[in-house]
Amino acid sequence: MPTTLAQKLYLLCYTVEKEKFQLDNIQGRGQLLRAGAMTELARGGLLDATGGKVRRLPGNPPEDPFTAAVWYDLPEDKPKGWLNFLHNKAHSAETPVRDQLLACGDVTLTRERKLGVISTDRVTVMRPHLVRDLQDRVRSTVLNGAPAEHLTDELAMAVLAAELELTSVWSKADRRAHKSDLKAHAARFDTLVPGLRKALRDSYLASRAVGGGWST
């Protein structure tokens, strides 16, 4: 299984029952992957989110190249709004994370033609049962108790998946039935990384309005 939060979030978007990444679950995935990297940077003390804005803190860059690239994108001096660093480079986030999963054998990539004319990349998950386990752990972090005190992967994934309305994790009925629990977890996430969740939601809604999404 993947090790970085961005890699886990990529796979979280997979619908196991339908054996594919559904279009409505990948429209905001570029932003989601960058949000995952920023969450890891916050957890590692490599960014400052005081006042709901973000700046890079000094330190050694992360070992993971994708997370490191996101870190280098952040401003060193004057803090700026999260949206600048979630939205503008979302189109470039999917390929490096996907290629990491390819290298580890978590997914495969095939080239297909639609209607015999348009070529598209099809990503296939090799161990769907492990993705299902991941999705179940994410759901249970909300359904089985109070929000975690620390910024765990499961807390982050549960909250970020809800903001992107990922049906692979939360159906519309789930979000309605567990609205108060999801709200409590979102509030906890906001105390740990203020401003990131709202920026992700804003970016997702802007992309969805124009049919956004950069991968299949």
UniProtKB/TrEMBL annotation:
Main location: Golgi
UniProt superkingdom: Bacteria
UniProt key word Phosphoprotein: no
Keywords (A to Z) from UniProt: Golgi apparatus, Lipid-binding, Membrane
A Pfam cross-reference name: GPP34
Topology of this chain in the membrane: Peripheral membrane protein
Localization, UniProt: Golgi apparatus membrane
Record has Membrane as a keyword: yes
Protein name listed in UniProt: GPP34 family phosphoprotein
Phylogenetic lineage: Bacteria, Bacillati, Actinomycetota, Actinomycetes, Kitasatosporales
